[in-house]
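The methods section describes the discrete structure representation at length, but only in general terms. Since the whole study asks how a given chain folds, the encoding of that fold should be made plain. An entry of this sort, consisting of the sequence and the corresponding backbone structure tokens, reads as follows:

. . .
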Amino acid sequence: MKPTTSLILLSYLIFTIFGNPLLTSAVDPSTEPVRDTAGQDIVSGTSYYILPGRGGNGGGLILTSPRRQTCPRQIAQDPNEANHGLPLSFSPWNHERTVRVNTDINIKFNIRRACNESTVWRFDANSQVPGPYFITLGGVEGNPGRETITNWFKIQRFEDGYNLQYCPTVCQSCRIICGDIGIINDNGRRRLGLSETPFKVVFKKA
């Protein structure tokens, strides 16, 4: 192949990959580390509080139920801004130590419960159709794939903070519902569920 022809071909490939934003995003997705309020990378298995990214917007995350049950499974935001809520940890699907944006993760509350039920987050696919779709407990940690598709979430960049998202990619053949996680008023309780208004959050080490 002549040098001129090789140069033209190389220039074409560079333009095709880097000049096309769709191809660029596919080749190099944003997977920067998620950082806590102290500017440190979030580490898998370490306890953190999920707090609102805007002041005067309530406190951290707690568990609630419509009745006084021994093991409430509904995830909600505490209305008291002074309350950090319950500590949580994150586990990436690939067992990486650093938690990154746009990566499938399990989220679980690091608490002990008398009933020994799972504290892993789960997308409630049995919520009323067409919604709202809520986030509850009862998920399974690890084992990414079709059987655990409702247990995987993502952290995404949002303004100067982050937001949580349900849009798992651990099963390429699964048909799923994607959406940002926001606050939904459910009979006075500020529950987590899929919403057109993302819940801006930050992470504080517990």
Remarks:
- Residues 1-29 have pLDDT under 50 and may be disordered.
- The two ends are 62 Å apart (CA to CA).
- The chain is about 10% helix and 30% strand.
